[in-house]
Amino acid sequence: MFSWIRDVSIKTKIIVPLVILILIPIILISYISFNLQKQLTISLTKHDAEVTAKTALSTLNTMMLTHTIQNKSYRRTLIKIYKRIKGIKGFQVIRGNLVNEEFNKKFGPGLKEEEPNSSFDRKILSSSVPITKEIYKNEHHAYLMVGIPFVAKTNSRGINCLACHTNAVNGDVLGGIKIIYSLKALDAAQSYFIKYSIIIALISIVLIIIVLYLIIKNAIINPTIKLSKAADNISKGNLEQEIPHIRNDEIGKLAKSFGRMAISLKKAMEMLKEKQK
User: Fold this and answer.
1) Alpha-carbon distance 122 to 131, whole Å?
2) What are the distances in angstroms from CA 40 to CA 27, 77, 188, 195?
3) What structural domains and CATH numbers belong to the chain?
4) Using the 8-state DSSP alphabet, how is residue 142 labeled?
5) Model confidence over 229-256: pLDDT tens digits?
6) Sheet holding 142-151, edge to edge
7) Residue 32 C-alpha from the chain's centroid
8) Distance between CA 144 and CA 134 in Å, rounded?
């Protein structure tokens, strides 16, 4: 099946496997680095979302303490401000049932955009820890959706949530914030990484092939060609052919063997001529 390999030149038999062995680690390292970079970016984005959400929560707490939270226009302005932050493509304050029950009695219904309108929104209200979801608008551009729940605590950054939300108990989820981040910067960084990884890999392979070719040519191919020509001359009866053997490696030993063979043939021819006389 692979009998054709026998007819392939020695330099090809040596260079191709070496290039493959070098190429495999390069591909693996690039793949691992690519995924590590992606995971790191997503992790940092999630951290940024948590910081942004906590800042927004602090703002809402301040509005609550100053009795301005019931002003819907203030809350709309707050949402618009956060939507303008670079990288944020969506920002939503989600009110839970406990907050709605309490505030609807005092100030009327909340904003329509504060209502949970997706399964992800409802997951935020049922979770006590931040949740993330990677979503794709298309195959070229990705977004990261992060949900941060507001959990009622007796000491949340120095504020007792239960003092205002009297119908809640410690650990209840009062609401949350949903932030959608664009991963365009990550896409650009990954494209840049892939592009230059391929360029570096190609340059490295070309340089490796050139170096290997020169080494193989000088160490194996050229000496082998000289031995082949010498053997051909000897086969034609030129027993005076000199076979240089200045090296002590395998090719040098082969050259010495050819030299001894030429001497033996020369002596045998001389002895044959003497007997014929």
Assistant:
1) 11
2) 20, 32, 15, 20
3) 10-182 (3.30.450), 206-276 (1.10.287.130)
4) E
5) 877 777 777 766 677 666 677 777 777 7
6) 88-95, 173-182, 142-151, 131-136
7) 5
8) 5
Buried b / exposed e along 165-187 (16+ C-beta atoms within 10 A): beebeeebbbbbbbbbbbbeebe
Angle at 55 between CA 51 and CA 57, to 5 degrees: 115
DSSP state of 213: H
pTM score of the predicted model: 0.61
Residue appearing with tokens 């959400």: 53
List per-residue pLDDT tens for the chain, 277 residues long: 556 666 677 777 777 787 788 778 878 887 887 788 778 777 887 788 778 877 887 887 788 778 787 788 888 888 888 888 888 888 988 888 887 777 776 666 777 888 888 899 999 998 888 888 877 766 667 788 888 888 888 777 677 777 777 777 888 888 888 988 887 777 777 777 777 877 887 788 788 878 878 887 877 778 777 777 877 777 777 766 677 666 677 777 777 777 777 777 777 777 777 777 6
Count CA within 13 A, CB hemisphere, residue 152. Answer: 21
Distance separating alpha carbons of residues 112 and 194, to the nearest angstrom: 44
The type of residue at 35 is: N
CB 108 within 8 A of CB 95: no
